[in-house]
Design goal:
InterPro entries: METL9 (IPR007884). It is built from 4 helices and no strands. It is mainly α. Helix content is 63%, strand content 0%.
Length: 59
């Protein structure tokens, strides 16, 4: 794999993980591990899929 061109490398800005983002990621992980919540989302998606497009359901 080749290195990126100099003009692309010059635009790279490394960022740190702030507290708000860390909190969001922790909440997202907790929700994704909740089996009951995932079952509920699947059932609602199945039912609403008869009336809405996939794009509309995703918000």
């Amino acid at each position: 794999m080749q290195a990126a061109p100099a003009h692309v490398r010059d635009t790279f800005l490394e960022m740190d993980l702030d507290e708000a983002t860390a909190d969001f990621l922790e909440q997202a992980e907790a929700k994704s591990e909740s089996i009951l919540l995932q079952i509920w989302h699947s059932l609602v998606k199945l039912l609403l899929g008869w009336f809405f497009t996939q794009t509309s359901l995703n918000g």
